[in-house]
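Morning!

This is the sequence you dropped in the shared folder:
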Amino acid sequence: MILSGYAAPFAQTAWLEDGAEYIAHGAFDGMLAAGVFLNVRDHDAPRIADNLMLFCDSYGLGFRANVPDEVWSDIKGFVCRKGGVGASIDMAEFERVPSRINGHSARAVVRATINHITITDSPAYRGTGVWPSAINGP
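The structure's back. Tokens below.
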């Protein structure tokens, strides 16, 4: 099964434990060919797909992953449940700068690399999503 999704929308505020943050357009441009992997439910969970195809568009950082059939049968109920699921990124390296968004002080992530993307029901950034590629995204 091919899964698609958005793991990091641009210019959307996330309210993290240590303050507001958003990801700037272009933050991932230097790492789109990196060997990023996919896992489910928890950042420490085993990998379910390697070498994701990453892309950036006007919405954010997107991905496509080829998930083996036996893994898909285990996670299908979670991914396709009512209300859907989101995605969370594990930033390995990043550069943040002070900024403002929607009138609030925030940090802008202007450069980042990630290790993996996790399919989750509690993403830090709203506007993420994961779906089987046969279904149109958000």
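Headline: The longest helix spans residues 69-79.

More detail when I'm at my desk.
O.
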